Amino acid sequence: MYQTFEPELVYFAQNGLLEGPVWDSQNQLLYFVSITDHVIYVMNEQTKEIRTYLTSGPVGAAVLYGEHELLSAEKEGIFKINKETSERTFLCQPNQDERLRYNDGKLDPKGRFLIGSMGYNQTVENGASLYVA
After folding, report:
1. pLDDT score of 55 more than 60
2. Is 101 annotated to bind ligand?
């Protein structure tokens, strides 16, 4: 027998493209990004309080990296972000094609950041890529 669930709107952005939800079960926090608004959101599931981390450009993914850090895939490259101080450290830039942006990312079991890309406004034919950082 299947259990049915009623969908619940948890956050509405007036603008933007919200993607990449990541659930932090230990802290009961939901992480997600607004690609076009250049923001990483963190929502407390209990209080609905929102914290934000601003990025320097379009951000396609953010993942938990250890207890105190995030990894983000941004137009300018891959960054490590300290969750307490918001300090950002540039790590690398796998994508050299200005017509592409990062669109999705997850950590694999080895702790590597798997990142997908796509063309802006889907104008770059054969531009989709998958990176490991």
Report:
1. yes
2. yes
